[in-house]
Write a structure and sequence with these properties.
Helix content: over 70%
Oligomer: single chain
Radius of gyration: 21 Å
Strand content: under 5%
Structural class: mainly alpha
Number of helices: 8
Distance between the termini: 34 Å
Length: about 260
């Protein structure tokens, strides 16, 4: 099971992490402020490239950790361009196929009306599994920025349920962390009698989103290590995503060899 404490530690200990978070928060702030100000043309213009930027940033961070690099967020924006292009070709076709299958399953297969809430429960199951498949494909790509990985159907099918379980455990942790960070900021602005639409509060929330990307990159790398199996384990000794089970086993082996000597 992935550890949020390790992910948070990695995010906070990265070199120049605060600078990177504040820089990448700028486009998010522009989008959020445009939306709150009801400037929809500016919001639409900024939202699409910002979303692509954040997805590429997250994918690059996951790949960096998987490759045993200490950098999670990169300040080299131009290096994210090929990542974004690979992401498009790796995820878009599979996502469309998954959504079409989900739509067909919920549209053509109907649960008898006699079963109260049966159709609603069925649709929730179908779309939850569909979302899990899409996330698994995204994680498989981000693991090594391999365009072919999401098309390995056997690997995706074997990892989907594990990914779903990890995401279920992740959601409440995300809510708690963001609730604490944003809650403290909201309380300070409340005491100072500032509105939540104040630009500084919006910018702080934008920075929190980037911080989320930073520690999620580490967390997802742990999930990918545990759930998405490969034929060759290329990073057993990886500093960041080595599982707790591996650490305990290594310690036991070390003590055993020491006693024998």
């Amino acid at each position: 099971m992935a550890l949020m404490t390790d992910a948070l530690s990695d995010a906070m200990s990265e070199d120049f992490s605060l600078v990177k978070i504040l820089v990448y928060a700028i486009p998010v702030f522009i989008c959020a402020y445009a939306f709150i100000s009801k400037n929809m043309p500016l919001f639409i213009i900024c939202a699409i490239p910002t979303t692509i930027l954040l997805l590429a940033l997250l994918s690059n961070g996951i790949a960096n950790i998987t490759s045993n690099k200490r950098e999670i967020l990169t300040l080299n924006v131009f290096s994210l361009i090929p990542v974004a292009m690979k992401l498009f070709f790796a995820i878009t076709p599979q996502t469309i196929i998954t959504l079409v299958i989900g739509f067909c399953l919920t549209y053509f297969i109907r649960i008898p009306e006699e079963l109260k809430y049966g159709q609603l429960i069925y649709e929730c199951i179908v779309w939850t599994l569909s979302a899990s498949v899409i996330l698994t494909e995204y994680f498989a790509f981000s693991k090594r920025l391999d365009v072919k990985a999401p098309y390995n159907l056997q690997m995706i099918s074997e990892a989907t349920i594990d990914i779903l379980i990890n995401i279920i455990f992740l959601i409440p942790q995300l809510l708690i962390i963001n609730g604490i960070l944003i809650g403290i900021a909201w309380y300070m602005f409340f005491l100072l009698k500032y509105s939540v639409q104040h630009p500084l509060f919006i910018y702080f929330c934008s920075a929190v989103l980037i911080f989320n990307i930073s520690f999620l990159a580490s967390y997802i790398a742990q999930i990918s290590y545990e759930a998405i199996k490969e034929k060759d384990e290329l990073y057993n000794d990886n500093y960041y995503i080595r599982t707790k089970k591996d650490e305990i086993l290594n310690n036991k082996n070390y003590k055993k060899e020491k006693n024998e000597n």
